[in-house]
Amino acid sequence: MSDEPAAAPLLVKTTANARSRDLALRILIPLLVIAALILIWSAYVRLSGVPPYILPGPAAVANAFVTDWGTLAPALWVTTKITLVSLMLALVGGVGFAIFLVQSRWIELAFYPLAVILQVTPIVAISPLILIYAPSTQVALLICAFLVAFFPILSNMVQGLKSVDHNLINLFELYGASRWQTLLFLKLPAAQPYFMTGLRIGGGLALIAAVVAEFAAGSAGAGSGLAFRLLEAQYRLNIPRLFAALLMLSLLGVAIFAVTSFISWLALHRWHESSLKREN
């Protein structure tokens, strides 16, 4: 009995060390893999003698990343704005429409197929119509990115709102809870894991849709995003700049995934099984 108080701090310290070691491995292992791939890439370019206008080495890409920063950074900002604004619109629209759909089976039967039709129709096929009817190219890009990011959030949110334990719904009804009280205090909290999954998927899709929409819209000029800079670099055979623009898009995608995953962890790590560590 007397050893238990002394063993408690040691157990806490051991657990903290294990978590720190686990976090370090999660960061270190991907970095080592990326470093190994870059070394293989560099060695292949040196040994094969492939010209830089076909495949530049990592050093040439890094040099283009620095020297062309003044050209690529504004385009990155444009793509980032379109991605984030469309994701915010998709979050509001997806959650709002999901709440609307689950209010009645008839409403779901009437409107859910329309959302499915929008999802399964390729955005490249819809974009010419959107470009005709939208008041500006930027609005058209926002609509295209919104349509792609909207459905995963809607689908996950509908599934979450319909997956509430029926015994808990019966308990709320037994205590006379209104429809809105059941929604606010039972269904929405229970749907959080599904919403977070939709958020992570929608974040990546919003970026992809923003780039595809720029390609489809054929936007060009100073106010264009990274898709235009990719095409411009391709036409000029400026392959290092093309790789640098691709690197920017990849880093932006990783940043969006990291932020959405962190938000998901903040919301779920104290109570949901998907974020809790097993005790045995």
Describe this structure in words.
The chain has 280 residues and is mainly α. 81% of the residues lie in helices and 0% in strands. The protein has eleven helices and no strands. The chain has helices spanning 4-48, 58-67, 69-101, 105-120, 123-133, 137-161, 166-174, 179-190, 192-217, 226-235, 239-268. Helix 5 packs across helix 6 and helix 9 packs antiparallel against helix 11. The longest helix is centred in the N-terminal third of the chain and has 45 residues, at 4-48. The chain is flat and about 75 Å long.
Q: Uncertain runs with pLDDT below 50, 5 residues or more? A: none
Average of per-residue pLDDT values: 86
Oligomer: single chain
Beta-strand residue fraction: under 5%
Overall geometry comes to flat
How many beta-strand runs?
0
Describe the largest sheet.
none
Radius of gyration: 24 Å
Secondary-structure class: mainly alpha
Distance between the termini: 24 Å
Helix content: over 70%
Order of helices and strands: HHHHHHHHHHH
The tally of helices reads 11
Question: How is the secondary structure organized here?
Answer:
Layout: H1 4-48, H2 58-67, H3 69-101, H4 105-120, H5 123-133, H6 137-161, H7 166-174, H8 179-190, H9 192-217, H10 226-235, H11 239-268
Helix pairs in contact: 2-11, 3-6, 3-9, 3-10, 4-6, 5-6, 5-9, 6-9, 9-10, 9-11, 10-11
